[in-house]
Amino acid sequence: MANLTRRAFIRTTSLLAASLPAASLLLPRLGRAAPASARVGGGIERQAFRAYLVRALEAKLGPILALARPNGQFGTEPWIVRDQDAILTLALLYQCEGGPHYKDPQLLERIAAGGRYLRARQDAKGMYPFDKKDGSNWGPIYMPWTYLRWIVTFQLMAADFAPADRAIWAEGLKLGYAGIAATELSSRSGIYPGPLTGHPPLKPGEVIPWIHNIPCHHAAGLFIAGRHFGRPDWQQQAREYIQLVVAAQSEHGWWTEHSGPVVLYNRVYLEALGVYYALSGDAGVLPALERGNRYHLNYLYPNGAMIETVDERNPSEPLKLVRGPQGAARYLPPHIGIHPGLYCTDEGRALLAHQFPLVAERDPAELDSAEFLYLFLPATDAGLAYTTAPARRFRMGGDALIAREDPWLVSLSAYCCPRTGNRFIQDRQNLISIYHRDAGLILGGGNTKLQPLWSTLTVGDPRLLTPVGAKRDTNLAPTVAVAYTPEHCVIAEPGPQRWTQRISAAGAVVELACEIVSATALRLGATLVQAAPDGRPAAVHLTFLPYPESPVVFSDGARADIAGVQWEKTGVTQLRHHVWQLDLPAAARIACPVLPHNPYTTDGHAEAAEGRLVVSLPLERLGVTCPLTLTIGRPA
After folding, report:
1. Which residues contact 60 (CB under 8 A, 6 or more apart)?
2. Nearest CA among 298, 192, 211 for reference residue 255
3. What number of other Cβ atoms are within 10 A of residue 586's Cβ?
4. pLDDT given for residue 72 in this prediction
5. Helix ranges (DSSP H) in 257-317
C-alpha cells in the first residue's frame, strides 16, 4: 500500500500551506534529527515502522466494517460516541494511493455516513451523552478524542464528499467547535472539577483557564477548525491556550490534575501537543514536548509499561497472559503506549525505538494511536534517529527517584497530599515499586481510593475502610480513624545500591529500606522510628502484583489462588509466587486479592484481577526492623 504522502496530505487539508514554505512540505519539524555525527543511539527503520502502521490500519478495517450500520453508526450496542472514531481509520485507508481501498466509493460512503451520524446524534449545543459500554452514563460532553478525529477526517475527505455531505459535516463541526470555544477551555465547562489543591475557590462569575488533558485536545482541534472554517479567532484562542498548557508543565515534564504528577494521562497531553505542532509548526511547544518525552523515557519499565509509582490517576492494570507455541506463559502489559508527540524530540524517538519492538510483537489492531502515527510519520530514517538513553538515576527534586541497577529497577515516591473526593484522583498512598528484568513488576502497582491496605504506611486499623460495597455517591475521602495517606516522606540513598524512605503519618514515623544484594536478591526492612502519639498501631503494607495462573505457595506447604474470594494467611516465613520468593517475619499478615476502587465503573467495583497480594508488617517496637528478602528464581 502506498503511503499517503505529506505533500498530498497538505494539498488536501491546507493545514500547513499557510504557514510553511514549499520546501518544508515534508514536515521536517517533526523529525528534528540529530546531525549524523551525533547519531550514536540508533533509530527505527522507517519502512519497517510504516509497514507495521499500515498493518495496524488494515487490521482494524474488518471489525469496523462488520459492525457498520447503513445509517453510519459504528460499533457494538450500546452505542457510544467514540465508536465513530473509526472514520479516521477509514479515511486514511481511502486516501492511500496504490492501496486496495484507494478512492473506494463504498468506503467513501461509510466515511460520509459516519459523520452524518455524528451530526444526527449531537444535541443543540453539539454535545454527546458520555455513555460507556457498561450502560452507565456520565453526563453530556464534547468528546475531545472524537472531535479531534472528526475535524482531521474532514480535512482529509472534504474534497471527496458530495456537497450535501460536506455541508452536514461542516454544520456539525461548526456547532461543536463553537461550543468548545465558548466553554471548554475554561472553568465554564460543565465537567470542570474545580481549582487545583491549594488554589482558592472561584469567586462568583470568575472564569479561569482549565489546564487539563481534555481541553488540551480540544485546543488542538480548535486550531484546525479555525483554519479550515476561516475563524482566526479560534486559531488565536487555541494558540494562547496551548501556551498556558506549556507554562503549566512541571520542570520535570509532567502536568498535575490535583497535586503532583500524572503518568498515563501525561501521554495524552503530549499526544495533543504533538498533533498541534505537526499541523501548526508552533515551535513554542517544543520545550514542553522535550521535557515530557524525557520524563516518559525515564518513567518506563523495560517491558514497555509506564512506571506507575508517582501517578495520581492510574494504578497498574492487570497483566495480560499469553502463551507461546509450547505453552510457556508470558506476562505482558495490557497496553504499550506510543504517539506522534514522540517524533518531535530526541528523547521521544529514543522512547519510540524502545517501544516499537514490543509493540510489533502484539496484534496490530491494538495500536490505538496508529492513525496519528501514520499521518505524521517522518519522511526519512533520519527523522527517527536518536542519541538519548534513560538515566541510571532520574530524580525529580526530592520528590521521586528512579534507580536503574540492571536487572533491578527501583522507583520511589515522596509525593504526599490531602485526599480528595474526586473519583479520578487517587490517594497518594503507595510509595515504592520494584521491577526485575526476569520477573517483571513485583512490588508496587500504584494508588487507589478507600483501600488502606494499598498504603505503604497506615496508622490505625486498616480494616475500618474498604472500597467493597461502595456506590456512585460514596464519600471517597471520608473521615475515618485510620491514617492511610502519608503526610511527609524523605528519600535518601545512603549507599550505592541502598535507599531509604522516612515516612510520616498521624505523628508516627517509619523508615522503609531497600538494598540490592545481588542480581537475584534484594533486602527490604521496615522500622518504627516514632510511635503515634495517640497510641494507634503503625503498619507497613507491601503490595505485590498478582501473576495470573500462578499460585501462592507458603513455607508450611499450603497453597492459595490469587483470584476469587479474598483469603488471609499468617504465621509463615516464606511465600512463593510467579518466579520470586519472599522470606518474611512470621508476624506478617498476607491477604489476596485486596481490591481497589475502580473509578471507571459506576459504583467503583473492581474485579479480582485488579487486586494485590498484600504483605502487612505490624510495627510494634521502636527501633526493631522487620526484615524481608526478595529472591528471583525458585529454589530447586
Report:
1. 86, 89, 365, 370
2. 211
3. 9
4. 98
5. 266-280, 286-298
- The set of residues, in sequence order, having a beta carbon less than 8 Å from that of 256 and lying 6+ positions away, is 196, 250, 262, 312
Helix (H, G, I), strand (E, B) or coil at 304: coil
Closest listed residue to residue 480, CA positions, set 508, 504, 509, 451: 451
Question: Which CATH number, 2.60.40, 1.10.10, 2.70.98, 2.30.30, labels domain 393-632?
Answer: 2.70.98
Q: Are 590 and 614 in contact (CB under 8 A)?
A: yes
pLDDT digits (tens, 9 = 90+) for 142-198: 999 999 999 999 999 999 999 999 999 999 999 999 999 999 999 999 999 999 988
* pTM summary value: 0.94
Q: Are strands 432-436 and 408-413 parallel, antiparallel or unpaired?
A: antiparallel
Taking only the tens place, the pLDDT of each residue in 508-536 is 999 999 999 999 999 999 999 999 999 99
Q: CA dihedral defined by 436, 437, 438, 440, rounded to 10 degrees?
A: 60
CATH class of 6-194+208-386: mainly alpha
Every domain of the chain and the residues it spans: 6-194+208-386, 393-632
Asked if 355 contacts 304 with a C-beta cutoff of 8 angstroms, the reply is yes
Beta bridge partners of 530: 509
What span, in angstroms and rounded, lies between the C-alpha atoms of 446 and 411?
11
**Cell numbers of 533, please?**
502519639
Angle at 507 between CA 460 and CA 523, to 5 degrees: 75
Fold equal for 6-194+208-386 and 393-632:
no
Question: Coil, strand, or helix at residue 460?
Answer: coil
